[in-house]
Amino acid sequence: MWAVTLPKACPFLFSLKTRKMLMKYTAFGPSFAVHWTQEHKVGSFLKRRATVQTELNAQTDPRKMQELSQELSNIEEHVVRSNFWLGTLQSTLVRLQKGEEFLRQADVAMGFLANASKLMEVQFEGETGFGIAVTQSFYVEVAQALQERSINSAMPMWVEDNDSSAGQQHLLCRKGLLLKPLPPGPLRDRVVHRFRFLGRLMGQALREGFIVPLPLADDFFALLLEEPLGPSSLPKPGHGVAGELLGALSDFLDDLALNEAQQREAGQSEEEIQAWRQAQVRNLSH
After folding, report:
1. Do both 173 and 72 map to the same domain?
2. Are the C-beta atoms of 194 and 155 separated by less than 8 Å?
3. DSSP 161-208
4. How far, in Å, are 113, 120, 276 from residue 107 at the CA level?
5. Has this prediction a pTM greater than 0.85?
6. Cα(171)–Cα(179) distance, integer angstroms
7. Are residues 45 and 146 both part of a single domain?
8. Quick one: 145 and 171 in the same domain?
């Protein structure tokens, strides 16, 4: 038990590589642990097998086809005879349709796979491709959909940016996507469900080694880690999100407090400090 408990309690003692390895082999169940062990031992052969298979499918020269077939057979024999090979992990083929129903279908798929020890392969309706590249494009499509202005207006997850009048289809927040306070009423439950979908999506991608290119702000991860957020987390001018004035006013108050402390150390009276403070506020209002 100490091997799992110690890295959680004292993560600074271990490198990022070690902590990622520990997570891979302990967080997703024995099926994926065995899968990654095999990938580590015979992964190079599996990659070569996929390459040879692709070349063989596109080949028309009989002699070259024979050579590739022989190489493919040798690779298969090496993998099967390996002491580390127990068999491939089962996959679930998910067919999705791009368009208005895409996020709903993706939500259903993530709910179905949440407790399944299977890999996910995605195929889009009307397209013939499938495999790793198509599955990665699925995560890209979801990330882009979650950043669309129209979708965020109907399902408010993120703070709006200040470029809404620029005609851009997606949110453009230079600091990253900031969580928007949950709305009241029935919409609240729908937004919470959407965040649960996002969590399942991230977990599925993490489990299978894919990337969800969603530009989340650092504050998002601070909240996940239950770290307190203070005035320094308010959006500042230049971050590209609504509410930047709040951050500017927060900085102004910090500057006032710092200058007042310096004036007290210099021996100025409270009346002089108060007069200086009022002058600064007047200057700000102008």
Report:
1. no
2. yes
3. BS-GGGT-SB---TT-BPBPPPPSSHHHHHHHHHHHHHHHHHHHHHHH
4. 10, 14, 57
5. no
6. 13
7. no
8. yes
Structural domain that includes position 60: 1-88
Residues whose CB is less than 8 angstroms from the CB of residue 242 and which lie 6 or more positions away in sequence, other chains included: 159, 160, 161, 162, 235
Statement: residue 200 has pLDDT above 70:
yes
pLDDT tens, 227-236?
888 888 888 8
User: Any alpha helices (H) in the chain, and if so which ranges?
Assistant: 2-9, 16-26, 30-58, 62-81, 102-113, 132-146, 149-154, 186-208, 218-224, 244-265, 270-285
State the CATH number of the domain containing residue 108.
3.90.1750.10
Phi, psi of 237 (to 5 degrees): -55, 130
In the chain, the number of structural domains is 3
The answer to whether 200 and 266 are in contact (CB under 8 A) is: no
